[in-house]
Amino acid sequence: MIYDGTITDVAGLRAGHATDREAATGCTVILCPEGAVAGADVRGGAPGTRETDLLAPGRTVERVHAVLLTGGSAFGLDAAGGVMRYLEERGFGFDTGAARVPIVPAAVLYDLEVGRADRRPDRDMGYEACKCALAEPPEQGLVGAGTGATVGKLLGMAHAMPGGVGAASVKTSGVTVAALVAVNAVGNVVDHHTGRTLAGVRVNGAFADPIALMLDGAGGAPAGVNTTIGVIATDGILTGVQAARLACVAHDGLALSIRPVHTAMDGDTLFALSTGRVACDFNRVCVAAVEALARAVVNAVTAGERP
């Protein structure tokens, strides 16, 4: 059953934000210091990522120590250095013999048009997000990586609405599956259970259908200015191959709640984490992941105060 839980419902995870409201940007970190089996799947045509190749099945390192979601376009990847510093100071990381190297995959979204393009998440901000990371429910809405996120940009920023960070979780047969997502899409966000549009392209005070607009030849936001990024996590025991597959399947949650999605104008990227606490039915985990992610997208555009 779906309930409006959060990513930290998965035991062993902590989540934190660092937010720069003046610059309308920030970053969000999911910490798993003891390590989690991980996978990644990149679907958008204009991604900005770090360490996703390392997460392909069959690589030497299957466990990560944090995942970073950040604003600032490609500049924001610098914040991962602060996450690494935080973990190294506390003795967490992959033991190479000479040093422990924290493994911190990351993905960015584009928010440079919203606030100040000259101020982006950096190492200090990544470190601050780690200091704020708790096992308690993280704030949702226009915070962290979602501070400057927007949706419905097909006709340009004048017709767009705020996006944000959202989370949700599902419990099934004693297994928890949870999602946290930063929604920054060219498309509209809909409630997939009711079909109701919640945020997106607005024309003359009403929602427009971006799919119909595209098919009629209207609009065309530049590539790379969008991107929805997120994390699916479970306490179910998964292999590296299963984690990669979970990240792949979870994109169906984006397809349910963002229309259109995975275009050349988006850089949609999802990470999957397994803290490996309980045995699970993998197919059930995949179905739960789709539902959790779709609900997290809805929560991202409805949580907190809206301008």
Characteristic key phrases:
alpha+beta, L-amino peptidase D-ALA esterase/amidase, 3-stranded antiparallel β-sheet
The share of residues in extended strands comes to 25-35%
Helix content: 10-25%
Assign the CATH architecture: 4-Layer Sandwich
CATH fold title: L-amino peptidase D-ALA esterase/amidase
Distance, first to last CA: 32 Å
What is the helix/strand order? EEEEEHEEEHEEEEEEEEHEHEEH
Coarse morphology: globular
Let me know the number of strands.
19
What value does the average pLDDT take?
92
Assigned CATH class:
Alpha Beta
CATH superfamily assignment?
Answer: L-amino peptidase D-ALA esterase/amidase
Output the radius of gyration.
18 Å
How many discrete domains? 1
Structural class by SSE content: alpha+beta
Low-confidence runs of at least 5 consecutive residues: none
Can you summarize this structure?
This protein has 307 residues and is α+β, with helices and mostly antiparallel strands. It is 21% helix and 31% strand.
What's the layout of helices and strands?
Layout: E1 2-3, E2 14-20, E3 25-42, E4 49-50, E5 63-70, H1 79-89, E6 94-95, E7 100-101, E8 106-108, H2 123-131, E9 150-151, E10 161-162, E11 164-172, E12 175-183, E13 188-190, E14 197-199, E15 202-203, E16 206-207, H3 210-215, E17 229-236, H4 240-257, E18 258-259, E19 269-278, H5 282-302
Parallel strand pairs: 5-8, 17-19
Antiparallel strand pairs: 1-11, 2-3, 3-5, 3-19, 4-8, 6-7, 9-10, 11-12, 12-17, 13-14, 13-18, 15-16
Helix pairs in contact: 1-2, 4-5
Structural overview:
This protein has 307 residues and is of the alpha+beta class. The protein has one domain: L-amino peptidase D-ALA esterase/amidase, CATH 3.60.70. It has five helices and 19 strands. It has helices spanning 79-89, 123-131, 210-215, 240-257, 282-302; strands spanning 2-3, 14-20, 25-42, 49-50, 63-70, 94-95, 100-101, 106-108, 150-151, 161-162, 164-172, 175-183, 188-190, 197-199, 202-203, 206-207, 229-236, 258-259, 269-278. Strand 15 and strand 16 form a beta hairpin. Helix 1 (79-89) packs across helix 2 (123-131) and helix 4 packs across helix 5 (282-302). The two termini are 32 Å apart. The model has no long low-confidence stretch (mean pLDDT 92).
